């Protein structure tokens, strides 16, 4: 009877010994490793290699069909003006189309009276030769388009290249910090235990809004300067200490 009562205790102790053995085996040295985790950052200031131009073509009519018909003519004129400046069909895309009624408040009757319909066609043009931005903006405006704004940025190929550079610099920054901290603590930096990309990105690119473009259009020659694009990266790296 006493042997039967002792059996559960023997099983429990055996299980604990097995768990302890597995934990010990899961660690190379049998002890917890000393580690240090640091973050590294990088910021690159680079020249943009493209400009995105947002344009709106508008037309009004007494009916939705009339407004849309007039808009088609105006949109075609704007697009042809862009093509005449050297842009291809691949550089031009429609980002929105809308037809809606317009009303005017009548204070005498206290009602909104329908005055007609407005049709809008939103167009985005991608410009790769930044020296042509000013002339393309002028051409779009002369063709009847409303130039909303110009935004400078990077093509996918350029983004990939600068992302890699920023991540490399951020990783080097993390290693420099870890080396300094470990030496201060009297330890030596070991191998990398883990590394994570915390984030990388692009703050808003410099752009010219409609007001700035209108002001520039009043000058004899429209000149739009692109400025710089900022590419940032942050990494988190854990090193083993020796």
Task: Describe what this molecule looks like in 3D.
This protein has five helices and eight strands. The model is unreliable at 11-30 (pLDDT under 50). Helix 2 packs antiparallel against helix 3. It is of the alpha+beta class and 242 residues long. The strands form two sheets. A five-stranded antiparallel sheet has the order 3-4-2-5-7. It has two domains: 29-47 and 155-205 and 228-242, Protein of unknown function (DUF541), domain 1 (Translation Initiation Factor IF3), CATH 3.30.110; 50-153, Protein of unknown function (DUF541), domain 2 (Alpha-Beta Plaits, 2-Layer Sandwich). The protein is elongated.
Q: What pattern of helices and strands is seen along the backbone?
A: HEEHEEHEHEEHE
Strand tally is 8
Low-confidence stretches: 11-30
The biggest sheet, with number of strands, parallel, antiparallel or mixed sense and barrel status, is: 5 strands, antiparallel
Number of domains: 2
What's the CATH topology name of the largest domain? Answer: Alpha-Beta Plaits
Which band does the percent of strand residues land in? 35-45%
**What do the pLDDT scores average to?**
83
* Distance separating the two termini: 55 Å
Number of helices: 5
The CATH class designation of the largest domain is: Alpha Beta
- CATH superfamily annotation of the largest domain: Protein of unknown function (DUF541), domain 2
The computed structural class is alpha+beta
């Amino acid at each position: 009877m006493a042997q039967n009562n002792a059996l559960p205790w023997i099983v429990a102790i055996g299980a604990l010994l097995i768990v302890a053995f597995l934990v010990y085996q899961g660690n190379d040295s049998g002890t917890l490793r000393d580690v240090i985790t640091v973050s590294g950052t990088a910021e690159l200031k680079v020249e943009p290699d493209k400009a995105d131009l947002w344009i709106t073509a508008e037309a009004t009519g007494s009916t939705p069909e009339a407004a849309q018909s007039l808009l088609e003519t105006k949109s075609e004129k704007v697009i042809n003006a862009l093509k005449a400046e050297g842009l291809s069909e691949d550089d031009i895309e429609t980002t929105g189309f809308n037809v809606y009624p317009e009303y005017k408040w009548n204070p005498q009757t206290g009602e909104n009276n329908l005055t007609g319909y407005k049709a809008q066609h939103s167009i985005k043009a991608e410009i790769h030769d930044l020296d042509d931005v000013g002339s393309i903006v002028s051409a779009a405006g002369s063709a009847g388009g409303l130039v909303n704004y110009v935004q400078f940025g990077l093509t996918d190929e350029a983004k990939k290249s600068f992302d890699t550079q920023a991540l490399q610099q951020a990783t080097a920054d993390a290693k420099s910090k870890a080396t300094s901290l470990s030496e201060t603590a009297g330890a030596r930096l070991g191998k990398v235990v883990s590394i994570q990309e915390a984030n990388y990105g692009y703050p808003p690119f410099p752009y010219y809004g409609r007001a700035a473009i209108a002001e520039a259009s009043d000058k004899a020659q429209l000149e739009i300067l692109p400025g710089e694009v900022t590419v940032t990266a942050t990494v988190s790296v854990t090193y083993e200490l020796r």
